[in-house]
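Revision sheet: structure tokens.
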Amino acid sequence: MKNPKAVMTMILMACFMMTASISAKSQAKPKGKPWPAPATAIKMANPVKADAASLKHAKEIYEKNCKSCHGATGKGDGTKAAKIDISCGDFSSAEYTKISDGELFWKTTEGRKPMPSFKEILDESEIWSVINYTKSLAGGK
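Predicted:
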């Protein structure tokens, strides 16, 4: 061993990184109770095309109504997320892209604590557009 001090520093850094990784995983918030959508909702097709204009408008809606909890990139790390006792979800995950647009529409429209209902806030076209936008965060649209 040419430099025992350097070796010891590397070992300590590796231990620190493993501890930080384990700690971050153990602090992950639970997903919350199951929230199944009705079969009729799951089968609904998104009538809004995910084109550049729609996604641009949807991003504006998202930033105004969703970003504070779901975060700028949809990872569930918005400024209000720390105050919520369950995970805000991760729109960039492969798991999220598997959820049908119809199910997402139903959940966004109906809401469930801590997520509010958006049926009185956004019109249907806006909700569908936001779904397209959130799916684009994971490359799903």
